[in-house]
Amino acid sequence: MSNKRKKTEAQNIATAAGISESSALHGEAISEFFKAYTGLDKEAGISLERGHRNISSYKINPEHAINNLRQQAGYSAEVTHVARENAKNILSGNPERLFRTEDVPGFGNNHTVYDHVKKIDGKLVENSGSQMKFVSNIEKQLKRIAEGKGGGKNDHSRYLDGELILPSDQVDKAKEICSKKADLLHKQADALAKKGNNCLAIEKRQAAKAYEDLKDNKIKSAALSSEEAIKYRISPKWETAKDIGRIAHQSGLKGTQLGIALIGGIAILTNIIQVSLGNKKASQALRDVALTTGKSAASGYAIGFGGAAISGAMRQSASAPIRSLANTSLPTLIVSTGIQLSGSIRSLIAGEISNLEFFEQVGQSGTNLLAGSAFAAAGQIAIPIPVIGAMAGSMVGYVLSSIFYQEAIISFKEKKLSAERYTEIRALSSEARKRMELEAELIKNFFKKEVERKKKESDELFKTLDSAISQRDINSFCDYINRFCHKLGYDLEVQDRADLDKLLSNNETLKI
Questions:
Q1: In the chain, where are the structural domains located?
Q2: Which of 93, 181, 422, 454 is most buried as measured by Cβ atoms within 10 A of its Cβ?
């Protein structure tokens, strides 16, 4: 593998490790759409009452096709609203999660008042119930809710107890209707009161207040329109894919930002040094920085986009071990390796590399994937700073795995190796990998012990310094400072008060 390809792969692995946390978050949001489609929550181990897949299989009576389709689209709207609201809350850090009442024990199927309720950490949020209405005649529906028995044979005034969720395209119209109806009913009530018909006037005012309450407090917008609900009923796979793509796109933009900041920053620094040394002209350096930054942005987007999508799918896998890996850097590293392999495949088809060279590159990319992932985890433990620890660990893992792999592959390329020698080299290669894993553990433990030791020394220092300050013991204060600096590998020029007096009394310029 050329130095240029090695450099690109190392950069991609570092980007993958850095974006893994954000990608996992977007993957969690994406998993909501997998649940909505399949009707299964693999993480919780439960089956939902409805999912887009089974809703799309509902039969439609040709004689009542339009009404059937709208009714079933209402179910699709309920499921989609849950997925979109939960995805939004996950990305914003809101702990609330929305559920259809059919999926919450105690509410039963087709609850008479609520379609949705909210939970936080598994506990029901009080007064969080809502009713969703996706109907063609919204004015008639509002009349049934606000005017109760006066709204016709179907009294829906019970819906006033919670929020009323309407299609996003009907919200403004519904509020306008409520405002006009409230004004009209208030005028009718005033006229009735003048005629002495106080009972009917009170009913009119109550209905007017109900319309006002709907307008000001109850009516909320669903996370989709009437048209989108129909599309989800007809083409659930495509609409789900669009939602997944939208969230993955956000993750891709995060990857672009990281790629530009990380790889672009390194490129700028490197080229500044090259220009200062006279090895490059400024114009050439600018072109190189632009090219590197552009490539890092593209690969960062691909890693962020693909990593989030894979993470979301892994969360809803039937395999528990695969679900447990969704929060690691593995999804983004899989995409990173895929990007690298695509280059190898193109080179093979173009005749730029031989079959042997192709398998070498494929093998090394796989090795670097494993090592980068393992060391990213170790690096995050050793250096508990978000992103930095994972990137540092992945770079170390990449370098070490490359060294071991290259040594093994050089031995394999000898054409006249005997069968015994071949077996020996395989054993050496296996031992090298085991040694690499051992070294990773040692590095992790070393960093952990060092951090603990430095923390302990720092705590002891500040404790003794507080004591020296409170007792106004200047010599002890200086002694403790000198000891701590010595442990860090430094010796101060001023060791005590006598050294300070000497330094201040001479005629030389004081440099700090």
A1: 135-221, 449-503
A2: 181
Where does 214-281 have alpha helices with state H? 226-234, 236-259, 265-276
Please report where in the chains the tokens 């009713």 appear, as a residue: 131
- Strands 116-120, 123-124: pairing is antiparallel
Return per-residue pLDDT of the chain as tens, 512 residues.
455 555 565 565 666 666 778 888 999 999 999 999 999 998 888 899 999 999 999 999 988 888 899 889 999 999 999 999 999 999 999 999 999 999 999 888 888 899 999 999 989 999 999 999 998 899 999 999 998 765 456 788 889 989 999 999 999 999 999 999 999 999 999 999 998 888 899 989 999 999 999 999 999 999 899 999 999 999 999 999 999 999 999 988 888 877 776 666 666 667 677 777 777 787 887 787 777 677 777 777 888 888 888 888 888 888 887 787 787 777 777 777 666 666 666 666 677 766 556 555 555 555 455 445 544 444 444 444 444 444 445 444 544 455 444 544 554 555 445 555 667 667 766 776 676 667 667 666 766 776 677 677 777 776 776 776 677 776 776 777 777 676 666 666 666 667 666 766 766 665 55
Joined together, the tokens standing for residue 495 give 């060791």
